[in-house]
Amino acid sequence: MDISANLTSVRQRVAAACARSGRDANSVTLVAVAKGHPAEVVCAAAQLGLNLFGESRVQEAKAKIGLCPARLHWHLIGHLQSNKCRDAVHLFEMIQSVDSLSLAREINKWADKSAKTMPVLIEVNVAGESSKFGYAPEKVLAELKEINALPRIEVQGLMTVAPLAQEAEKVRPVFRRLRQLKGQCEELLGAPLAHLSMGMSDDFEVAVEEGATMIRLGSAVLGPRAASKAGAEGP
């Protein structure tokens, strides 16, 4: 495993994708997905300058974050159960996987108890896959204003996990639809949304071409996990 070489390669590929789409490479933030990796791997990546990491499970994050440098930033990118909201609000700087109004209300409750404003992304199941969590696109538009009105919630954008595909180009319509939905959300709210979190190790270049501001990469940066699972970088 050579995290340094992986990181160099990823940055070159992001820069090339940005050049193809007329974007500044600095407009794309890398979230290194630590799911399944021990704290030692996170620490090694941090020494190379990575400072933003994603975790899919609250319990794994609880065990790992305290073993890593305190300067690191952590996002929850996996499905959040209501009974884990208190810990999630405490552990993470952003929750990228809000997939219901009831969950947003529970996050708001615990953020209020912590006197904290919680940045969130709304997870959208663009492709309508039964195996994945996330809002249907039309339901996002129906409930967005209620979520945005919660006093301790700060909606900063949308997130999706694209279907697994042999060719990344096949999931371009998913990323394009999320970008279009972001525009509809901005029109509904009358304000810009900063983030589109989309793209993983197998498809991030297409996601960047379609406007991703955050890409969530596990194996492409940190190498294979001890117990690798297909699609494990997403929620």
In angstroms, what is the radius of gyration? 17 Å
* Spatial strand order of the main sheet: 7-6-5-4-3-2-1-8
What percentage of amino acids are in beta strands?
15-25%
What is the CATH class name? Alpha Beta
- Can you give the mean pLDDT? 95
Total E-strand runs: 8
Helix content: 40-55%
Helix and strand composition category: alpha/beta
Termini separation comes to: 24 Å
Shape: globular
Q: Based on the structure, what is the oligomeric state of the protein chains?
A: single chain
Low-confidence stretches: 228-235
- The number of helical elements comes to 9
Number of domains: 1
Query: Main β-sheet: number of strands, strand sense, barrel status?
Result: 8 strands, parallel
Detail the topology: elements first, then pairings:
Elements: H1 3-20, E1 29-33, H2 39-47, E2 52-55, H3 58-64, E3 73-76, H4 85-91, E4 94-98, H5 101-113, E5 118-123, H6 137-149, E6 153-159, H7 172-189, E7 195-197, H8 204-209, E8 214-217, H9 219-222
Parallel strand pairs: 1-2, 1-8, 2-3, 3-4, 4-5, 5-6, 6-7
Helix pairs in contact: 4-5, 6-7
